[in-house]
Design brief:
The protein is an alpha/beta fold and 335 residues long. It is 38% helix and 16% strand. The longest helix is centred in the last third of the chain and has 17 residues.
Length: 335
């Protein structure tokens, strides 16, 4: 019996992959819905904002370079990732002299989870309010995935605040309403709530064609599934589903050709991510997610844009091909 108990305990530990944050490992207490207990690479600050009458807090990192070049980059995260995943990109930009501002948008990461719906216009206003609070007039935007949709909206609504726009594996290059029928929010909540950690790992690997070792994906799994033990988990889940509805209901594909700021698309050649594809009629699914080709087509229509396709990479191109990503981003921002 004494031999069985330690073996069972070890098996239990293995069922819960450890994150890179050693402080979380011993007791595995649930994270709060503002990712309390999940470490970020730099100090996190909070900015009070009001969205649709609701008092909220927007979390952000503000990283100063050792040798400033006088410019600031804002990093915009994707839907399934806390902004901590930008750690290597923050270091890269900071070493090149850039001040780096890294917000968690409302509804994500360490920011408040609202009771109301999410909207790109609100997220754009919040981001500009953050820049105003930090007394930053103009920035370069480097965005990923859902952050690419937000970057487009900011560039269109506040063109005088954006010097360069880097869209890294952006979603929203097509209007998903043309393929996918609308899905009720309650149905989406039910589906997401049934998803397991293993199922989510497979979903990330399949949808995003990630070329990373399994342990590199584990923090993303933990950041989502260790929240389930929080009593506020239902509010987190509703906010997460609201972000999916925002992607569907508020397309930006029709705005992309109107962007006049210098724009660089950096696309993983194997990234065919298309939100909602499983709900589309089977005959239409193959037409969705041709992201590299869509980026090239958009760049050809825009006055000051180009698309770079990185071979053998998926949706997390800046983690999968960091040296090529560094070369492309620093070369573009240095123009």
């Amino acid at each position: 019996m004494n031999r069985i108990l330690p073996a069972a305990f070890a098996a239990t530990l293995l069922a819960f992959p450890l994150t890179v944050c050693a402080a979380d490992a011993p007791q595995r207490e649930p994270y709060g819905i503002a990712l309390e207990g999940f470490a970020y690479p730099y100090p996190v600050h909070l900015l009070p904002v009001v969205n649709d009458g609701e008092q909220l807090s927007m979390a952000y990192m503000d990283v100063a370079p050792a040798q400033p070049n006088g410019r600031t980059v804002v990093l915009l995260h994707g839907r399934n990732f806390p902004s901590s995943y930008w750690a290597d990109v923050i270091k890269m930009l900071s070493e090149a002299g850039y001040r780096v501002v890294v917000p968690d948008q409302i509804g994500f990461g360490k920011s408040s989870k609202p009771t109301g719906e999410l909207h790109f216009d609100n997220l754009a206003r919040n981001t500009v309010a953050l820049l105003d609070n930090l007394k930053i007039d103009k920035v370069d935007i480097v965005a990923h995935s859902l952050g690419g949709m937000l970057g487009v909206r900011i560039a269109r609504a506040y063109p005088d605040r954006v010097a360069h726009l880097v869209l890294t594996a952006p979603i929203g290059l097509e209007d998903y309403r043309l393929y996918v029928p609308p899905t009720p929010t309650e149905k989406m909540i039910e589906t997401e709530d049934k998803l397991t950690a293993d199922g989510y790992r497979k979903q990330l690997q399949t949808n995003y064609a990630i070329k990373l070792p399994p342990e590199a994906i584990t923090p993303f799994i933990d950041a989502r599934f260790n929240i389930k033990g929080s009593p506020d988990y239902p509010r987190w889940l509703r906010a997460f589903v609201s972000s999916g509805q925002m992607i569907y209901r508020e397309p930006v594909a029709h705005e992309i050709p109107l962007i006049t700021e210098p724009t660089l698309f950096i696309m993983g050649a194997d990234d065919h991510n298309a939100p909602g594809r499983p709900n589309a009629p089977e005959a239409l699914r193959a037409k969705m997610g041709q992201n590299a080709e869509l980026a090239k087509a958009f760049a050809a229509k825009m006055p000051n844009a180009r698309a770079e396709i990185v071979p053998d990479t998926g949706h997390l191109v800046f983690l999968e091909a960091p040296e090529r990503y560094k070369e492309l981003v620093l070369g573009f921002l240095g123009r």
